[in-house]
Specification:
Elements (H helix, E strand, L loop, with lengths): L1 H63 L7 H10 L3 H4 L2 E6 L4 E4 L14 H9 L8 E2 L6 E10 L5 E10 L7 H5 L7 E5 L5 E3 L18 H7 L4 E6 L5 E8 L6 E7 H4 L1 H49 L13 H36 L2 E7 L4 E4 L2 H6 L3 H4 L4 H5 L1 H15 L4 E7 L6 E10 L8 E8 L1 H23 L2 E7 L4 E4 L2 H6 L11 H5 L1 H15 L4 E9 L2 E12 L8 E8 L1 H14 L10 H18 L3 E8 L2 H26 L6 E6 L2 E6 L6 H14 L3 E3 L2 E3 L3 E8 L6 H17 L4 E5 L5 E6 L2
Parallel strand pairs: 26-27
Antiparallel strand pairs: 1-2, 1-5, 3-4, 4-5, 6-7, 6-10, 8-9, 9-10, 11-12, 11-15, 13-14, 14-15, 16-17, 16-20, 18-19, 19-20, 21-23, 21-26, 22-23, 24-25, 27-28
Helix pairs in contact: 1-8
Bound molecules: guanosine-5'-triphosphate.
Guanosine-5'-triphosphate (GTP) binds next to helix 20.
Main location: membrane
Protein name: Diguanylate cyclase
InterPro entries: Biofilm_reg_signaling, dCache_1, GGDEF_dom, Nucleotide_cyclase, PAS, PAS-like_dom_sf, PAS_4, Rev_trsase/Diguanyl_cyclase
Amino acid sequence: MTCVVILLVLAATTVVTWMALSMSERDMKSVIGQQQFSLLSLAAANIDEQLAGKRTLLASIADDVPPRQRTPAAIRAAIERHASAAEEFANVAAFDANGRFLASLRPPLQDNPSVKDRPYFEQTLAQKRAIISPPLRGRVSSLPVVVLTHPIIDSGGDVQAVLVGSIDLLNSDFFQHFNTMKPGKTGFMFIMTTEGILVNHPNKGRLLEHINARPGVNLGTQRALDGFEGWLEATNKDGVDGIYSYKRLNTTNWIVGARYPTDEAFAPMIRMRQQAVLAATLFAAVAGLLSWSMIQVLLAPLQKLRSNLHAIRARGGDIGLLRSHAKDEIGELSEALYELTAERQAALERLAESEKRARVIADNIPALVAYIDRELRFRFTNEHYQFLLGIDPRRMVGKRVDEVFGPAMLARWQDCFDIVLAGRRIHVERLGEELERHLHLMVELVPDLAPDGSVPGFYMMCTDITERKTAELAQAASEKRLRLIADHLPVMISAIDREHVLQFGNATYRRWLDTDPDTLPGRPMASVAGEVAYREAKPWLERAFAGQVTDYESTARLHGEPRVLETTFVPDVRKDGSVPFVYALTTDVTRSREVEAELLRQARRDPLTGIPNRRQFEDVLDQAIERVRRQDSQMALAYLDIDNFKHINDSLGHAGGDEVLKEFALRLTGNVRTTDTVARLAGDEFVIVFENIRHPDEIQLLAQKVMDAVAPDFTVLGSPLRVTTSIGIALYAGGTETAGGLIGRADMALYDTKRRGRNGFTIDSGRGLPEAAVTRP
Ligand SMILES: Nc1nc2c(ncn2[C@@H]2O[C@H](COP(=O)(O)OP(=O)(O)OP(=O)(O)O)[C@@H](O)[C@H]2O)c(=O)[nH]1
């Protein structure tokens, strides 16, 4: 912190110093530049002045030549009369209009020199006025020179002769003053023509050379050649910066330039900058230290606060240490921090408590519980890993799934992980083949959906369902066995739901109805059994859904044959009392019903004679009495006993007696109406129930008819035998009399007949006394 403060102060001081220096440097550069340009302008004025002086000198020599005696001697004399000519020029010579030598101040270096083809000469002739030549190399001396000319014109206006003054660029004093005006110690001045040919340069070897003869570019010089006058900063071809000033000469338009190296020009300023930086650094250090000391004093309460916070965080100390009763900003801050920390501590305690509870719950869930992040690393695992798989859950945290269970496991589960990490919940049941124990696992993968829709991880809960799975497999095997049994039972078995839709049917459907049992689930009962059969079954079925076992019998045609079917509806009553299904067991009872009917029939028949026995008789009598009451008709009951049957038995044997009984029964049944019933009650006792008696007198005729039927001899064991019978008849014409009462009256009437000597009949019409009694002789 201290370092930061010092660095900040230093940085601020440096920035301020740098800005101040930059501004003063900019001003200083401007001043130096202007100075340089002023100096250069003075130097240029000096050159202009010298050139003007030299031109004036030539003009004066020309004027001094007498117009009518322009001989070489006169011209030479005129030159020599001007003593300054020798100082101003390296030589002054005169040439005629054809360029031929006329005279000179100093002897020529060659005989009869000619300037006929020299451009400055031709230009002077052509323009008829004085000119200053560009620098050129002397023909004979090979020295660099600048030539000034002046024409001597005759009265006719023609050029009669030309005065030529040469300036030796190497040795003359022409640039002496100019060169002393160079800027600084290492600066210099130079002159070049508008074409860039050097007229003056500290390096004399470069005279007459083009300024850009050396490779590279100096943008300042370039601008000067383009017409710029003034000062600027530029870099020379050697890469050295400098202040450049440029000014044009009035006389020749040549460019006068000065170069002032920046290092030298700004040397004082650089020194000043270094001193300023040093001073600023010192100032910053002192200011920084002072600031630091002050901050230390100011921040002392905060430091205390910080160390208290450290102590609380490191050792869990009392957060009351954060409290401060100071009435300043730091006091308020401490109090706010205390409240914040207290709230945070309470929240952390609640969170810890909640995490503890969650951990206890997770550790005690009989399932593997884990949280896995997007990199498929375990972030949370419960204790069940230790219990079920023998893996320490703490060692799993931070490891990837394949690091714990191997790459084969990851490959098998990767598709599930991809789905859950895409935000979809998955439920799968799988055999955990990658585990040492082959467990059946039920796995629930739940994505951890963040509020922004991203999925940073997912929860995985694996339950060991091996036991359940084994039980399911056993149940499936058991169901298969049951199915096998059900399919081979001669019973049609169905499961019917509350909508009366079939949910199951056994193979008997195929045998009885030619219906594939696999097509039954989902089909309404009516569509399988037919509307009629369904309507018949419906009430029984509804009672079964009410919880009652019902059964009923029905008839149906199976393969064209009439069959009797017995159906039992068994409700599937659940613990809550609901009946989701009713099982229907339909049995073909045709054969047993036939046997039953036969047994019943036989139970009601006398086995010896084949006519109804006492049981049948009693039913018939009850029904007949009921019909009389209902139809307001009449009936009669005849009670018959074979006379002296004991004697027959005794004489002919029991078999003979049986023959008599059978013949007797045959004769009785053959002589009554089909609506009448003949029955043998026991031994030689028979009864006849006569129905639909229209008049009591009819009874007598009926009795007589029976007597007549018995009268002819019987053939017993090949011998004729006379058999007689005694009859007692009771008439019933309605009323409350019971069957027993009627039988009693008939019996009494029989008794009367016997009492009178047998072989006859007695009729009791129900009026108290027998009304008719007949005894055969
Ligand atoms: N053969 C034969 N005899 C039977 C049968 N059932 C009963 N009896 C005999 O029939 C006889 C009936 O005799 P009763 O009716 O008491 O005497 P009864 O000789 O007919 O004398 P009344 O009736 O007074 O004429 C007895 O001897 C029985 O043993 C049977 O099924 N077959």
